[in-house]
Each structure stands twice: as C-alpha cells, then as structure tokens.
Amino acid sequence: MEYSIGEFSKLTGFSIHTLRYYEQEGLIAPERNSGNRRCYSDKDLTWIAFIKRLKDTGMPVREIKHYAELRAAGDSTLSDRMEMLVQHRQALNEQIARLQEHKIKLDEKIEFYRNEIECVNTKGAGYPAPPY
C-alpha cells in the first residue's frame, strides 16, 4: 500500500516536519510518484518503527543515521549492522542494570519511611527527622 506524507505522519506519529528532516538526514528514502510527491510503503512503516525503537532505547540520531547508511549499502553490511545492534544492546543492558540498582535503593528508602511513619503513628511524635 502507498501512503502520502500526511497519511504516513498519522500512521507513525511523526510530524511531517520530522519525516522531511529524517529524509534530509538520510534516515528514510521514500519513493516519489509521477508528480514528485513522496510515496511511503508498508516497508517504510516497518523501517520507521525500527528507527523509533532505536530512538526510544537511547541510540543517538547520528548512530541511527550511520545504521541507515549501512542498511542502504546492502547485504555486504549485515555484519556491521549486527555489531552496532549488539553494542547498543550491551549499553541498554548496562543502563537497565543501573536503573534496577536505583530502584532497589528507592524501595529501601520507601520502606524506611513506611517504618518510620508507622513508629510515629503508633508511639507518637518525638523522633528526629531522618537525615535525608
């Protein structure tokens, strides 16, 4: 199926301005019809969804652009693209681990406050304020 830029914008959630910017940066390359208007396909939908996923997982636009250049170069770059994704996954796993550590510490602090509040409510006021 073919989509105009307006239809594609609605389907993807990206503004027309963003789609034009992505095209200018070489991230997407829609076909053109006889009137030189952009025509997006289902293949473009799949690709833009992947771009969105890369952005949502913290890959910088310049790296996404490099990935898009490799993709456009064809199958000879399959290993390079895979390696980029392996490295990105490793960075994402490290970020997830850091976030899990932060969550554990927040859970501990929340539990501390629950206990303190319970003590105050059952024994009355008079306890010093926690240091932080």
Describe the protein:
The protein has 132 residues and is mainly alpha-helical. The protein folds into 2 domains: 1-59, Multidrug-efflux Transporter Regulator, Chain: A, Domain 2, CATH 1.10.1660; 74-123. Helix content is 69%, strand content 6%. It contains 5 helices and 3 strands. Strands 1-3-2 form a 3-stranded antiparallel β-sheet. A hairpin with a 5-residue loop joins strand 2 and strand 3. The termini are far apart. The mean pLDDT is 92.
State the separation between the terminal residues, measured CA to CA: 58 Å
Q: Can you tell me the overall shape?
A: elongated
In the CATH hierarchy, the third-tier topology of the largest domain is known as Multidrug-efflux Transporter Regulator, Chain: A, Domain 2
List SSEs in N-to-C order.
EHHEEHHH
The CATH class label of the largest domain is Mainly Alpha
Number of strands: 3
Structural class: mainly alpha
Number of domains: 2
Under the CATH scheme, which architecture of the largest domain would be assigned? Answer: Orthogonal Bundle
Mean pLDDT, all residues: 92
Sequence-ordered SSE layout with sheet pairings:
Elements lengths: L1 E2 L1 H8 L3 H9 L6 E2 L5 E4 H15 L4 H13 L4 H46 L9
Antiparallel strand pairs: 1-3, 2-3
Short characterization:
The protein is mainly α and 132 residues long. Helix content is 69%, strand content 6%. The chain has a three-stranded antiparallel beta sheet with strand order 1-3-2.
Features:
about 130 residues; Multidrug-efflux Transporter Regulator, Chain: A, Domain 2; mainly alpha; elongated
